[in-house]
Each structure stands twice: as structure tokens, then as C-alpha cells.
Design brief:
Elements: H1 5-32, E1 40-42, H2 47-52, H3 54-64, E2 68-71, H4 79-89, E3 92-97, H5 112-120, E4 125-128, H6 145-158, H7 161-179, E5 184-188, H8 203-209, E6 216-221, H9 222-227, H10 232-238, E7 243-248, E8 250-251, E9 263-264, H11 273-282, E10 287-290, H12 300-312
Parallel strand pairs: 1-2, 1-10, 2-3, 3-4, 4-5, 5-6, 6-7, 7-10
Antiparallel strand pairs: 8-9
Helix pairs in contact: 3-4, 3-12, 4-5, 7-8, 10-11
Length: 319
């Protein structure tokens, strides 16, 4: 049977459409494929390697797949050199931990040089890592890390409701000043901020209640909160509007609000990461920083690799 011209054209169109189907399906599939959120790491976890080989360690961090770091120190570098090292490793530094006050020769957040440094490295968030430590007698510790930690914890445990109110007001005032430079301020918790005060509230309750939500945010350390016995999923839901960053950390037990913390690799502790990561997504947390406490089972950089591999396989982190 001889095909008409119209039939021939129709047949050719059908063939062309059929031939394009695999490509169309592939295009549709690619559009539906979810990309993993960029993961960051807190430099405190890598302090030893970074002290020895700053650029080389950052390069390894970028090669693992991390895209962000949160600085706990500037490692003796100026802003230009710090930023250059980040750029070379393919990393950004959206956030940095800086004490409110100068400490042991390190300038605090009220120092204009600190603000300039934060801006030079590309940071947007300044995080107060712990309450002010002016009452800690470091000279009596002899430089022993355990004694230093014990002295800090005792200072925190002895702080009253009014003490925490004063800390909140100072953080708020500093945040107002930082906002003029385009920086936000946040507070990073440990477990002692969940201990009960005289009025039944916790230090973290006071910090959140006594600060302006438009000025002060919270960087939630999930591991320390879990160690304090907090239902982290419920806490994320309750305070979603105040939390802009989290530390992804695991622990083997809820040890309370004392100094004790028993670290675990991500996925090997008590945290339920499926529910937790879903809660993080619902809360629209901006930055996720992996941090593991010592002692490590392997080298620090290997632990960073293992942690990244665990998180990178989580479907909850893909969007």
C-alpha cells in the first residue's frame, strides 16, 4: 500500500518523537534528581592538622567534598591570606567562633579588627562559643586542658539567673553593633546551658527570652544538647525561627549537664538522624557543620572523611 505524502510526514514525525523519548526521559529524570545540601566542618575538629599544614589540610577538606568551614581560630593569619587559602581549597567560611571579650591575647568581638577580619574572610555570622570567661582564673590551671575545662564549667555552673541576663544583654548589644557591618550574632551551646536556674528556666531559655529575635540567633550544638537529655527534634521545632546553624555531632549517652561528654561517630551514638535531619530541613537551618569531639578512633582528617560519607548518603539532606 502506497503511503500518501501526509502519511509519510506523520510517520517520520512519530519516529522522531520516539527517538527523542529516551532523551526526554533522561532530561525529566535529571530535573527530578535531588542535590545534596553543602556540608561544612568546624575547624576545631581539625585543629591539630591545620596547625601543622593549614593549606594542605584545607585542600584535603575540599577534596573530601566539604564546601564550608566554620572557623574556631584564624590560625595566626590575616584576612587576605585566610581567604586565599579557602579559595584555593574550594571552600567558603560563612561563620566563625569569636569570644565576646579578648582572651589570652586573642581580640574579642568588640574589637574593630575582628570585625574587619570576619568581613575579609567572607563570614556572615559571628558565633559566641561560650559565656564570658572573665571570672575564670586561667593562671591556676597551669595550662592543663582538663583543669581549664573544669574551671570553665564551674564558672558556668555558678552563674545565677541575673548573670545570664547580663550575658544576654551583652550579646544583644554586640549583635546590634555587628549588624551595622552586615554580620549576625549567634550563641553556641554546650550542655550546661540546659541546667535549671532558680526560677526553673535554663540559661538557654534566658538567652533566647532576653535577646531580640531580630538580632540574636542560636547555633544549636546537637551533640551537647542530646548529652543534656534534650529532645533535639522537639527543640528544633519549638525554636526553628531562632536557629540558623547547627553542629552535627553524636554522643553515646545523655550524661546530663555536667562536664562529661562521651563522643561517638555520626550514626554510632544515641541520635536518631532520620528524624533529626527531617527536623533540620523543616526548620530551614542555613548551615550544617560536622564536628566530632576527641578522642578519635582514627586521624582527624579520616574522621572528617567518615563523617562526610555518613552524612552525604542521607536522603534527608537532598533537596
Amino acid at each position: 500500500m502506497e503511503m500518501t505524502r501526509r502519511q509519510t510526514v506523520a510517520a517520520l514525525c512519530a519516529l522522531a518523537a520516539a527517538a527523542s523519548l529516551p532523551h526526554a526521559a533522561a532530561d525529566a529524570k535529571s530535573k527530578k534528581e535531588k542535590k545534596m545540601r553543602p556540608l561544612g566542618i568546624q575547624t576545631f575538629m581539625l585543629k591539630g592538622p591545620l596547625d601543622k599544614d593549614f593549606q594542605g589540610t584545607l585542600n584535603q577538606v575540599g577534596a573530601i567534598g566539604y564546601r564550608e568551614v566554620e572557623a574556631h581560630s584564624f590560625f595566626g593569619r590575616n584576612g587576605t591570606d585566610f581567604r586565599k587559602a579557602l579559595d584555593q581549597a574550594g571552600l567558603t567560611c560563612p561563620s566563625a567562633h569569636v569570644m565576646l571579650d579578648p582572651l589570652l591575647g586573642t581580640p574579642g568581638l568588640t574589637d574593630p579588627a575582628t570585625v574587619e577580619m570576619l568581613l575579609q574572610i567572607g563570614a556572615k555570622h559571628a558565633v559566641v562559643p561560650v559565656f564570658p570567661l572573665e571570672k575564670v582564673n586561667f593562671a591556676q590551671t597551669g595550662g592543663d586542658m582538663l583543669k581549664i575545662a573544669q574551671a570553665i564549667w564551674k564558672t558556668g555552673a555558678d552563674m545565677s539567673l541575673d548573670d545570664w541576663k547580663r550575658v544576654a544583654h551583652r550579646i544583644n548589644e554586640t549583635g546590634v553593633q555587628l549588624a551595622k557591618s552586615g554580620l549576625t550574632i549567634a550563641y553556641h551551646n554546650h550542655n550546661l546551658e540546659f541546667a535549671k536556674l532558680s526560677d526553673g528556666s535554663t540559661p538557654l531559655d534566658v538567652l533566647l527570652r532576653e535577646t531580640d529575635p531580630a538580632v540574636v540567633r542560636l547555633e544549636l550544638d546537637i551533640g551537647w544538647a542530646a548529652a543534656a537529655g534534650v529532645d533535639v527534634v522537639a527543640f528544633l521545632h519549638q525554636h526553628a525561627s531562632r536557629i540558623n546553624q547547627v553542629h552535627l555531632k553524636d554522643t553515646t549517652e545523655a550524661s546530663g549537664t555536667s562536664l562529661k561528654f562521651t563522643p561517638a561517630r555520626l550514626g554510632e551514638g544515641i541520635l536518631k538522624w532520620d528524624a533529626l535531619l527531617k527536623a533540620i530541613n523543616r526548620a530551614k537551618i542555613e548551615h550544617l557543620y560536622i564536628e566530632q569531639e576527641e578522642p578519635f578512633k582514627a586521624t582527624a582528617i579520616e574522621e572528617a572523611r567518615i563523617a562526610f560519607e555518613f552524612m552525604s548518603k542521607r536522603p534527608e539532606l537532598k533537596a
